[in-house]
Structure prediction request, 235 residues.
Amino acid sequence: MKKTFVGAVAALLFMFCFSLHPVSAQAAEHMLQMENDEWVCYTAGQRDNSYTGMAVNEYGWWYFSNGQIDFGYNGFATNEYGTWLFTDGILNTGFTGMTLNGDTWVYVTDGYISNTYTGMALNDYGWWYFNNGVLDLSYTGMALNEYGWWYFENGLLNEEYTGIGANSYGEWYYQQGRIGYDFSGKVKFDDTEYTITEGYVVEKRIVNETEADTADTVHTAGTLPAGEESSTLGK
Prediction:
């Protein structure tokens, strides 16, 4: 009776999961079959009681430990198509974001480690910069998401940064980590004076200390001029 109940529950779970589209069940090396109300793994047509890894049937992909579905497994598994995230033993195609794979932060798209993803990702500690699917703590520069362009230092968004950032389109004036599109005027950082139009650097020149007084706005890199504010990420 217990085996019948477990088998029925497993069958119901399968019906609510999606198959892994990069490979069909028929093409997979490891497949599931129901025997005596239990799902068991077959490898190359033979029952495999030692197999640990991914296995598939017509309802989706599952994680196996020693030939049996491991409903307690939370982590990654790899096949010839890539590395995939499993939650409670089931391929988690609903997850997109950053997560740990061992000691490495990786970026996952629809349950798949996206080794081509370059951009921003959020966790409880802030916004981070990913390069080819891996957290890049060496990156300092600009990055884009749906809220705008942001400034990163050592892989982490710096919402306190006020200064100049550059990308392939030119140089930009940042206020508290975000391009200051509402600012037009002159600013000076170190020995360079920048003429800004709606956040974009239209001109820059080297100045000495006496010339610095001609700038409309003079302040030290990394600090926001008095009376200026900048929007917070996501607001």
The helical segments are 2-15. Residues 1-27, 215-235 have pLDDT under 50 and may be disordered. The longest strand covers residues 200-206.
